[in-house]
Amino acid sequence: MEQLRDVVVSLFRIVVGLLFACHGAATLFGVLGGPPSGTIPSVGAWPHWWAGVIELGGGSLVMIGLFTRAAALLCSGTMAYAYFTVHLPKSLFPLTNGGELAAMFSWSFLMLAIFGSGAWSLDKLVSRYHRQRAKADADTDADANANA
Q1: Gyration radius (Cα) of the chain, Å
Q2: Helix (H, G, I), strand (E, B) or coil at 88
Q3: How does residue 109 score in pLDDT terms, banded at 50, 70 and 90?
Q4: pTM score, two decimals?
Q5: 20, 62 in Cβ contact below 8 A?
Q6: Any idea which of 55-59, 90-94, 110-114 has the lowest mean pLDDT?
Q7: Where are the domains of the chain?
Q8: DSSP track, 12-69
Q9: Cβ atoms within 10 A of the Cβ of 11, count?
Q10: How far apart are CA 132 and CA 144, in angstroms?
Q11: Half-sphere exposure (Cβ direction) of 135: Cα atoms closer than 13 Å
């Protein structure tokens, strides 16, 4: 069951990251239907341009599984900020204030920040490489000590 969980988390991470990156690309470059506001924000414009950068960059990192926990935490916080500053003042409930997507993204990324990247990720490859490198270094040190 643990192996299945890692695969499902990986697939969930890939889909959520891809969808979030698409939102960022739409906001920054006007592709895929364009930004929700209808106009592309100018570079550095608060908060839309910065949100687009976080969506595109953070979503891409989460999708490929690199620095997943940190990227997912940043994305979760961005969506929580969006929910509380844009949607909550309109109404308490997400169905009536238009904040379902922000709430779902925020909680999805929080889950990924807690559970990690799953089995299929660059984080796992990097971790495996560092473990093998440390083992090889330890073996080399042990051989040098034995020969001394």
Answers
A1: 20
A2: coil
A3: very high
A4: 0.88
A5: yes
A6: 90-94
A7: 2-120
A8: HHHHHHHHHHHHHHHHHH--TT--TTSSPPPTT-TTHHHHHHHHHHHHHHHHHTSSHH
A9: 13
A10: 18
A11: 6
